[in-house]
Structure formats: C-alpha cells, structure tokens
Description:
- The protein is an alpha/beta fold.
- It has 28 helices and 24 strands.
Amino acid sequence: PVVSQQAAPAVSSKPSCKPAVFVPVDRSPEIQEARLKLPILAEEQVIMEAINENPIVVICGETGSGKTTQVPQFLYEAGYTSSNGIIGITEPRRVAAVSMSQRVAKEMNLSHRVVSYQIRYEGNVTDETQIKFMTDGVLLKEVQKDFLLLKYKVIIIDEAHERSMYTDILIGLLSRIVPLREKKGLPLKLIIMSATLRVEDFTENTRLFAVTPPVLQVDARQFPVTVHFNKKTPLDDYSGECFRKVCKIHRMLPSGGILVFLTGQAEVHSLCRRLRKAFPFQKNNDDDRKESVEEMRKFKKSRRRRKAATLPQINLDNYAVVPVDEGDEDRDAETDDDIAGSDVDLDLGDGDSEEDSSLPLYVLPLYSLLAPEKQAKVFRPPPPGTRLCVVATNVAETSLTIPGIKYVVDCGKVKKRFYDKITGVSSFRVTWISQASANQRAGRAGRTEPGHCYRLYSSAVFMDFEKFSAPEITKRPVEDLILQMKALNIEKVINFPFPTPPPAEALAAAEELLIALGHPQGQKHGLKEQQAAKLSCPISPLGRVMATFPVAPRYAKMLALSRQHDCLPYTITIVSAMTVRELFEEFDRPAASEEETVKLKGKKGRLVQMQRIWAGQGSLQKLGDLMVMLGAVGACEYSGCTPKFCEENGLRYKAMLEIRRLRGQLTTAVNSVCTDAGLYVDPKMKPPTEAQATYLRQIVLAGLGDHLARRVQAEELLDDKWKNAYKTALLDDPVFIHPSSVLFKQLPDFVVYQEIVETTKLYMKGVSAVEPEWIPALLPSYCHFGKPLENPPPSYCPETGRIRCHRPSVFYRVSWQLPAVEV
Ligand code: ADP
Ligand code: MG
C-alpha cells in the first residue's frame, strides 16, 4: 500500500492544477492483463492525487513494480500532455531510455512518433512526441538552451537511486526551475523515482527543496525471495562458483529462469560458453543453434570468397586499407567467432564431461555494449522445453526487468571505474557491491512467483558491505560539469544545491584545469590571483564557445582552435573517436581462458599491423595514437563502414557507427557556432597533410595541456622503475606509454596523453608526440622559467637541480621559441 511517509503541508493555496481531460488509451487485452498484475496499478489514484496536489513528488518502489512503464501512462491518461507540454523521463543509462520508450509505446499502442526517445547519438523524437525518454545528459543540455524547460509539463527523474552525476545536477537545477515556473504561472511537475529507500539526500536536504516533498512508497515485491548465503568465506573463483551453482539449480530445482550477476563482458562470455557446453540444445528444435550453424556456413563461404578474390584496390589519396595475411584457417575461424560477439555458440562440439541429461539451458549474455537486438532477446520467452539463463553484468540490476526469473545467482561483485579525484587517473576494479545492490539483485527473483537468491558470499561478508554506494559526483573529476554549469551562468558552483556536493578538492582541481585551458577570466592575472579568483570565475568568451560543444572541456578547446589551417574536420573526427569507448575491440579484453589467450594474441597481432598502417609516416606518425584513430575511421568510412570491415580489422562496429553519428552532431554544433565555416562530414576525407598533422599536434597539446608528460632523461634515472618512464604534471609516480600505443617503442621526449589507466603500472593511452618548443607558446601557465619556487615542494631534487613533479616547473627547461599557433 502507498504510505505517505512525510505528509507534506499543502504546498500552494491555489486550486489544484489537475488537468480536466481524460485521454483514453487503447491497450491490447494481454497488455492490460499484464499491467493489472503490477503493484503500482493499484496505487494509481493515490499517486495521481499526490502529483496533482504537489509540485514535487518522490516515488519509491522496488524494481519491477512498474514505475518506469506505468507512471508516464498515468500522466498521459490524466491529460498532462493534452495542452502544449510533454512528459520527459530521464534515465541514467542509454539502454533503459531506448528499451523503455519501446515498451511504453507498445503498451499504449502508440507509435514511436508519440512515445519517443533521445539519447546522445540518436533518437526518434518528432513534433507529435508526447512522452519522451532520454538520458539525463540530454536533458542537461536542454536546460542550457531553455533554462525553464518550457516544452515540458512534467519531468520524471527515473532511477534517482543510481545517483548518476547528471541526475544529481538535474535534481539540483530542477529544485530552482520548479518554483520559477510556478511564479510564471506555468507550473512544472517534478517526479523523482527511485528504487531503494535512500531518498533522504533529496527530501531532507533543506538547500534543495523549501518544502519537503511527499514520498510515496509502492510496496512492490509480489512474491517472497528466499536468500541463501554461502557458508564459507567467499572464493576468488566466483565465476566457477557461479557455474556450479547454476548447474545445481538447473539439475535439481523446478522450472523458472536463472539470472546470474557477474562483473564484466569476458566473464559473461566465458560462463555462457561453459553452460552451453554443459547443457547443449537438441539441434532440431533449437532456433539459436540453427542460426549459429547458418552463421558458420555464411562465414565459411565468405572466407572462401575472400581468399579467392583479388585484394581490394587502394587509392593512395585515401586512408590505407591493406588486407592482412589471413593466417591459418583454424585460428581465423576462432577469431571471427570471437568478433561475432559469440552469443551464438559456434562450437558444435563434441560434448564435454560435464554434459548432462537435463533440459537444455537457453543461455543469453547481457551487458551494456552488447548489440541492441541481442539485448532484446532476454525479453522474449525462451524456446519451448528450455530453461532461460541470463548471464548479466550490473545492467540487469535495476534498469531492465527480465521476465520469468525465479533464481538469482549473485557473485557479490561489481566492476567499477575508479577515479583519482585530483588527477582524474582512472582504473577499473572489481569490488564488493553495496547492501542496497545485493538486495536489488535478490529482488530480481520472485517477480512472478516465489524465488530464491543464491549469494556466493557469507552473511558476515554481507554485513560488512557498505550500505549504499556513494553518489558518482563524489567520486569523479567534475571539470566537464563545472564548465556546463558556468555556461548556465552558475558562477559560484560551490553554492549550488547539490543533493550531495562533490569534495572541495575536486571542485578546486576542476576550476584549476579550466583556468589552465584558458577559459574563465583570470587568465591574464598571475598564478596567485588566479588561485584567489578561481572559485567564482565567470565564464570567458572562449569558455562560452567551449560550452557549446557537446564534449568535455579539453576536447571543446581543441575544437575551438581548429578553424586554423582547415583542421576542423580532423579534430572533429579525433574528438569523436576519443569520446567513444573501446574503438579497438580486443585490446583491453582480458582473456577468459588460456585457450582464449592464444586466440586474442592472434587478433592482437593483426590489429597491431593495421594500427601501424593507419599511423602513417613522418609527421603523421608523430600524431601517434590519434593518427591511428583518424586512419581507422578514414579507412572504415572509405570501405563503406560495414560490419565485415570492422570484424576483419579489429574495430568495434558499434563504436564506428557512434563515431559517425558524433561526427555529424559535432559538425552541426560547429557550424552553429561558426556560421561561416560551412562544414560538412566527408566520410572520404583525405588524410591530413604533413603540415596539418603538425598543427593537429599543437591543437591537441593546447587542449590536453595538463596531460603533458616528459620522458625521464638518463641522468635523472633514480632507479630501475623509472626506465622508459615519463613524468607527468599531476603524478609523482612513473607513467609509461601503453604497449598498445604506436609510440610504445619510439619514446618521444614529450607526449600528451588522453588518459592514464592503472593496470600493472600507470599507463598512458591515446598518446601523441609534441615538440618542447611549443609548450611555452601554447601552455604558458604550465611553464616556469626562473629558479625553482621559493618554497621547494617535497619533490625538489637538489642533486640535479630539477623540480621533479611540481606542476608549474616540471617543464622548466623548455626554451622560448617558435610560437606556432595563435591561441
Ligand atoms: P520499475 O521501473 O518499477 O523497475 P518497470 O516499469 O521497468 O518497473 O517494469 C514493469 C514490468 O514491465 C516488469 O514486469 C517488466 O518485466 C515489464 N517489462 C519492462 N520492459 C519490458 C519489455 N521490453 N518486454 C516485456 N516486459 C517488459
Ligand atoms: Mg524503472
């Protein structure tokens, strides 16, 4: 039942702003029946009354209770979209925005022109759109164009418990926008929806809302879930433990889907393979198997064709597309199987000692980078006579509800990106989940009947989990956010009503970076004045231009500088490529087994060969990994950007499509800033000239200036750990060029990097070489040409007379020469 935890006093004395109309929806009988089973349906009236009476309402309910799919329908039926104004729903994950809009359109029997979605790279919004699902980042961009969000009648912030950075900011902004709209006589409803119960950050935060909003609790779990803990202390081999648990469930327990939570793509695939081997399908009644046989046949045919055909003709004026030696047949087959994403098991295999006579298991992987059509499979009923088993990453925790799950196997771990607050160095680590997450995961069983959750850890370990995971905003660099906020004329970011404010040192680091990039006014003053002024700098003209580009400040600066020497199309491409994750599919993928190590090795060899080709010669080569990105995009576009080309060359097809979209979007953005530029996206653009490549390196230096690294000279070598190492402005430890970089062996004296990741060492990725004489001209605020600072920092080294890592002086030996690009 719905309980109003904190009955809010009547918020306004005005008559309630309930729309008068009722808009009928024509649903199919099956949909209607499924809806009626959702707990939230029984609470429609209470929820709508609360929304009608209050400008801001918080709705809490277990995942799967129907919040995301039903609340927009309630509002629609109650007439909220019947006079100008639409319903906007934000999701922290793209997967959710797309799939929820499709589901709601289907339930309401309305077209995608009316129930639509918008995510960063794509959307199907039209003039007729009345319900719009979008990512939180998309809505934040809209606030910049129209601060009052006048086109919306209602904003729903969904999955607020995830505490994504943009969600937090939106809630802060909306806490101010809602009263402003009220004052204008154009009231806006704000609905915050959250899965778990930690809503005090929103409701008990007096800086946020003047009046505490009512909290509606939807009691949702329809069926009890029995939680089973492991008795023993957790094992390291949780993946193997998952396998054993699934086998046991499948052999011994009654029918019902199984959902396994693992931490990453490689683990998911390797468990899928093991399970498919253990419980194979009967060939005849298995569509998936047929599909895989068919795919295998097609693949073999295409390989024969490839071998027979002459090599593609290369136009030397375009990016090199050089076919690579195909190697021996077997290796190639395995390789392509791997690239195909392997959710169809091509191993027609000879059984396995673990084979069993139980029902076949219909095993499906689920993770965020999986192609959408493969993701959608989990919503369809499994083939008759099989049991569904979904092996998923954290995606399945709250964003998507998979029907028919009765058993959950929870490894208790999650892979998370960790950032160093100051330097922004990030690394992925597998850590324990929070108690809230564990409970979420358990809740996924028992959606349709009583369920069971098997936790592969003991209850004592569970008690040690943190209660909730910390909000994203407290754990990552915030410079992109600060720039966005300054563009909204929020100068004193420190006073912004964050639900949970980021740490002061992260705010300071962000402001410092923005000053170094030359955006807030204060650039002209000396370092001290800058520091004094930095916490409340207004935005500068360059900063405003930067904020109009839908990319992080470093990249925005690169774009802003690229009108010179016709560099814009290249910068747009480089920036697009740098923003998209995992361009080169296999490089970072850890091998799941020894056998796979061999496979991956073969693929990597081939990719390395291609990368060398894409990196070009001479001055082009010095652009390093960024030239490789340019070359890869160029080569891919030149070949028509086909899945086949990507497969053969180790590129991730989805990433290439995203780059293409982002190039289009950035080109439009640039054209709207520089109205005379008249740019268009030319997929077959020529490689940059030698001179352009040099300018591009300078532009990259100007943008990524704080990511400058200097090679440690022989006389500075303190000990072996500094061999081939670089010093950076931000870290005291040695960093190295990542082995996947084309500059790995060349070791230029000065480089800029896109990011540092921590694995066995600190590695720089996305590396370009720069010339020392450019540094004073392009990055004056990073240079120090006099004596060491008056108060030597701890890293001052009296033997060599050098300041080792203090930022202003790390490059102090550079000479004044050749100012080459006007900044
Ligand atoms: P909540 O937002 O409270 O977590 P949802 O509104 O997402 O709940 O889900 C309500 C129900 O709709 C769930 O039972 C879920 O299985 C079902 N559902 C959601 N999306 C789909 C889909 N694409 N296909 C079939 N069922 C779906
Ligand atoms: Mg939801």
